[in-house]
Write a structure and sequence with these properties.
About 45% of the residues lie in helices and about 15% in strands. It is an alpha/beta fold. The longest helix is centred in the last third of the chain and has 18 residues. The relative contact order is 0.11.
């Protein structure tokens, strides 16, 4: 699969862009475990052109994580074009346009998935950004605004006509947010449309290696994007890539090995930010990690883990967990 001149190989698996998740440390870790491409957190075009320091920091990328895409969102054409030019100077491999974020503070203001209610504006922005930069421009969006407005099959063609190099589709509507099951049938319909020639990447509910292979086989997508399933489990890319390559499950990774990965995630997060913010940042990974699921009578320990305020306190709790007789049996 190629996006522009960037060759991602056969059946690439990518780390989805996620706010407060896909920071440089986490991207590098997922890359190490096999992610074929990684995406930054989404970047506000409005904040970018106003040179907001915290937003500019999101443009920092390392050569070790390439190929990497920077994703921007906004609702004004001139602002998006100016932001795109700023992003291009940060030298990402790809510029991605977010027309899929469903949260109210974004979609409710007309950006992200809010663009699904103003398709002419979405197309205007896309065409203008494609014309403004020299790197490949891609789009990530959803099936439509709600159940009665699933417009993706027609929309995909129109976005392609704007000159984008690839399209990622999350198999939910904006109204669904992240509830219910992702519907891949329309993603497959877009891919199998004979008028489509750009790569189609599917996203939504890919939580196991088997499901990832099924999405490639059943729906014919060119690439698969993994999002929330990577929380507290960056090694999912290692498991998925092994399964795609061999057709067999990777031998179980030891609980001790996975715990060391989480320890490293904590250290990387603290080093990237500072101790207080780094611990806060990594909590969603710890809360979601499958490493702790299935341990009986774990509630009090989980609460303590998620309330820990220092690295040393958190690692003491990790040590206590590792000594539990049931640790590693899940």
């Amino acid at each position: 699969m190629k996006i522009g001149q960037i060759d991602l190989g056969e059946r690439p698996v990518m780390l989805a862009p996620m706010e407060d998740v896909t920071d440089p440390a986490f991207r590098l870790m997922c890359k190490e475990f096999g992610a074929d491409m990684v995406y930054t957190e989404f970047v506000s075009a409005d904040a970018l052109i106003r040179f907001v320091s915290k937003t500019e920091q999101k443009l920092r990328i390392a050569d070790e994580e390439r190929p990497v895409a920077i994703q921007i969102y906004g609702k004004d054409t001139e602002t998006m074009v100016e932001a795109a030019r700023i992003v291009e100077r940060a030298r990402p491999d790809i510029l991605d346009l977010n027309f899929g974020c469903p949260v109210k503070r974004v979609a409710g203001k007309g950006a992200g998935a809010g663009m699904l209610r103003d398709v002419p504006k979405m197309l205007e922005i896309t065409r203008a950004v494609v014309d403004a930069v020299h790197i490949p421009v891609t789009v990530k969006t959803r099936l439509g605004w709600d159940e009665s407005d699933k417009i993706i099959v027609d929309l995909a063609e129109r976005l392609q006509d704007c000159g984008i190099a690839a399209l990622t589709i999350h198999g939910r509507t904006r109204a669904q947010m992240y509830t219910g099951e992702a519907d891949w049938t329309l993603i497959g319909e877009v891919k199998n449309n004979p008028r489509m020639y750009i790569p189609i990447i599917g996203n939504g509910d890919v939580t196991t290696p088997k499901r990832c292979k099924e999405c490639f086989d059943r729906y014919g997508v060119d690439g698969v994007m993994i999002g929330r399933a990577s929380f507290g489990r960056p090694w999912i890319f290692k498991e998925v890539k092994h399964y795609l390559r061999t057709g067999e499950e990777l031998p179980p990774l030891s609980a001790e090995w996975r715990m060391e990965v989480l320890r490293r995630q904590v250290v990387d997060s603290v080093n990237l930010l500072d101790e207080r913010r780094g611990i806060l940042h990594v909590r969603r990974h710890l809360a979601a990690s499958p490493l702790f699921k299935g341990i009986p009578n774990f509630r009090d320990t989980r609460v303590a883990m998620l309330r820990a305020e220092t690295k040393e306190e958190l690692f003491r709790i990790f040590d206590d967990i590792a000594r539990l007789p049931q640790f590693g049996e899940q």
